[in-house]
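Our platform keeps sequence and structure together, in a single record for each protein. Such a record has a labelled line for the sequence and another for the backbone structure tokens. Nothing more is needed to write down the fold, since each code stands for a local backbone conformation. For reference, a complete record is included directly beneath this paragraph:
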Amino acid sequence: MNIPKSLIKEEININIMGLQGQKILNQKSVGLKTISIENLPQGLYLMTISKGDEIKFSDKIFVSK
């Protein structure tokens, strides 16, 4: 998944959660252009990218096998 260009040089928090609220990934990053996560079980996930307490981007991720 590509990170929005406006956020590449920012210090951001990347969070991926299952729909029941389970945390899959919580990562701080600067300069990241893409995210690659392997071995996610099939299902629907919510990804948010935030700067501080403000959510800058969110999207749903569907993983199918």
